């Protein structure tokens, strides 16, 4: 098994300035998120509760837009006609604009019916299913993405096994998820669920956050050796986003995998 922690691309720069009205609007999104999040932590039904927020760049799922762009940047152009990309936990298809034109048939798998309707509107072939029981054939995919989904599943081993079995030999696995650290718990739950751009309240169960070394071992057991790197929002972009000066927040790579991180590997 090999585990590499490195950067896959260069970090980007940014500018910052502020508007009070936009901050208040973002705070209103958090208020509405709390109002609908009366469910237990990590309840998949909350995504249907917030279905109208998916494609709003300043909505409850704002950070998922930022992460989808960073994930899409790790997907290369298709190497053959008819190539398939399977998007596990696709939600409303936020990855679609970032892989469009790369030559893949984009298949999205998710439990949320409302999100899948939106995903289909954005060109995704929507399949309703659990990532622990993916209703697709073995070795059907040239690329499998698992973006912000592994930290929501109760059985990491099974989820990884299912993702890897979908890959053709030589196929690419692209993951982003959250590490099981005190820093991640504070930044993603204690603080993150209370600030604009963070996850909706109740979105995560920190007991399910994913240890990078364990993830690497699980993938290696199925013939996929991972490279890992941390990822974080560009601070100046976040300030501009809060100020209403941009809807676009870039994610920048870092060697620190203690909060958000990405993992990439090919199946042998």
Shape: globular
Using only C-alpha atoms, the radius of gyration works out to 17 Å
SSE class: alpha/beta
Q: Work out the helix count.
A: 9
Number of strands: 9
Q: Please, how many domains? A: 1
What amount of the residues lies in strands? 15-25%
Low-confidence stretches: 8-27
Main sheet specs: 9 strands, mixed
Mean pLDDT: 89
What top-tier CATH class fits best? Alpha Beta
The fold-level CATH name is Rossmann fold
Q: What is the name of the CATH architecture?
A: 3-Layer(aba) Sandwich
Percentage of residues in helical conformation: 25-40%
Query: How would you name the CATH homologous superfamily?
Result: Vaccinia Virus protein VP39
Summarize the structure.
It contains 9 helices and 9 strands. The chain has 268 residues and is α/β, with parallel strands linked by helices. The model is unreliable at 8-27 (pLDDT under 50).
SSE topology sketch:
Elements lengths: L3 E2 L14 H17 L8 H5 L12 H11 L11 E5 L7 H4 L5 E6 L2 H9 L3 E4 L12 E7 L8 H10 L1 E12 L3 H9 L21 H9 L6 E7 L1 H8 L8 E4 L5 E7 L2
Parallel strand pairs: 1-7, 2-3, 2-5, 3-4, 5-6
Antiparallel strand pairs: 6-9, 7-8, 7-9
